[in-house]
Write a structure and sequence with these properties.
The chain is of the alpha/beta class. It contains 9 helices and 19 strands.
Length: about 375
């Protein structure tokens, strides 16, 4: 390569020196792809080997699993609000769950993963009931877009959290405290009962010591001793606790079934949708609760799914395609399990799938027939490839 063969090179000051350096490095025989991988892998590993260092019982329903790297090395850096995809074997099935990191980005000798028991939650119940210090797991590296961007989100933000949705908020608050950030943050945190408020003592202590961090607890099922705020968390209560939205970036993390309601409440206060960020961590309305689900499609009826080169399985229409594949020992790559990250894309060669509303399909997915299988349900017999 030379400036004479690149018609644009002459437009850039110092182009000759840059091209000469590229040619010099090429002549030296350096393996640039290998060098790049060596530099990038510590920050963006394909897999992490983790050991549970400590299990902290936060409340009667919630535990925090402190994960350290098994080899003792520092963990990859992350942005407060991101998550890792933890690989978990439940029974004979290897699956994964996206778990928000609740610890501070300032501390990289461990990740804290805070898990709340869910009724019927296969993975959450397994983790809470069986995991002990010393157990080992693998996970992906930190990922996700649910974090504060100082260029666009401003320095005065609001976070509406529910249940274990406080985990990314806790990481953001610890980030502010540990790095001495000037950012103001108002957390409005909803819990069912007073004895199930995760991180209550730490949150209250931080709010007392740091006037730019405000914490409000809202309880939906108050006992006789509760004297604080009581839900539901509607527009009037949000406005009273958090103050006027005034374009402040507002983060929502909690049960996805509450998102549409909370967005409407915020919009009724004049808050624009573009200033609301949602952390997707599951499907709000699985079939047949989703009103878009075809009435004639029985979710319990089984259809066949043929995976090219790997065989055919029978699955109920109402089971997510990713779960059905994992049940049968087939594992597409996956991370968020909420239709957003697109790692679990499979190509639908024939047949029809139904996507939950959370699916964030790209134009190329629609153009070339790809499904996000974590939120895709087989309406008909399918042939897929991945």
């Amino acid at each position: 390569m030379s400036t004479s063969t690149n018609p644009l090179a002459h437009l850039f000051e110092g182009a000759d020196e840059v091209v000469a350096e590229i040619e010099r490095r090429g002549a030296a025989g350096a393996d640039h792809p290998a060098d790049a991988r060596e530099e990038i892998t510590p920050y963006h590993p394909k897999l992490l080997d983790l050991t549970v260092a400590e299990v902290v019982e936060e409340t009667v329903t919630t535990k925090t699993f402190r994960m350290r790297r098994t080899d003792g090395e520092p963990l990859p850096p992350f942005l407060a609000g991101q998550y890792v995809s933890l690989h978990v074997t439940v029974g004979d099935v290897l699956t994964s769950r996206a778990l928000s990191i609740s610890s501070s980005p300032a501390v990289l000798d461990h990740y804290d993963l805070t898990v709340r028991r869910l009724r019927g939650g296969r993975v959450s119940n397994h983790l809470i009931d069986t995991v002990r210090a010393g157990d080992r797991f693998t996970s992906g590296g930190p990922i996700g877009t649910f974090y504060h961007d100082p260029l666009f989100h401003g320095d005065d933000v609001v976070f509406l959290a529910g249940g274990s949705g406080v985990a990314p908020a806790m990481s953001m608050i610890r980030d502010i405290v540990d790095h001495g950030l000037s950012r103001r943050m108002t957390l409005v945190y909803g819990s069912r009962r007073a004895d199930d408020i995760i991180f209550r003592d730490e949150l209250d202590a931080i709010a007392r010591e740091h006037p730019h961090i405000t914490v409000h607890h809202v309880i939906s099922d108050p006992g006789p001793d509760w004297t604080g705020e009581v839900g539901p968390l509607d527009a009037a209560l949000i406005s009273r606790l958090a103050g006027p939205p005034a374009g402040r970036m507002t983060y929502l993390c909690g049960p996805p079934g509450k998102y549409a309601y909370l967005v409407r409440q915020l919009e009724s206060l004049g808050h624009p949708r573009r200033r609301i960020r949602l952390e997707a961590n599951s499907v709000a309305l699985p079939p047949p609760a989703d009103p878009r689900w075809p009435a004639e499609a029985d979710p319990e009826e089984e259809v066949t799914v043929t995976v090219r080169g790997r065989g055919t399985i029978s699955v109920p229409r109402g089971r997510p395609l990713l779960d059905a594949l994992e049940d049968n020992g087939l594992r597409p790559e996956a991370s968020c399990r909420s239709g957003e990250c697109a790692l679990c894309r499979v190509r639908v060669c024939s047949g029809e799938v139904f996507h939950a509303e959370e699916a964030r399909l790209r134009a190329s997915d629609r153009e070339f027939g790809f499904a996000h299988c974590c939120v895709a349900y087989p309406l008909t017999d399918l042939e897929i490839d991945f």
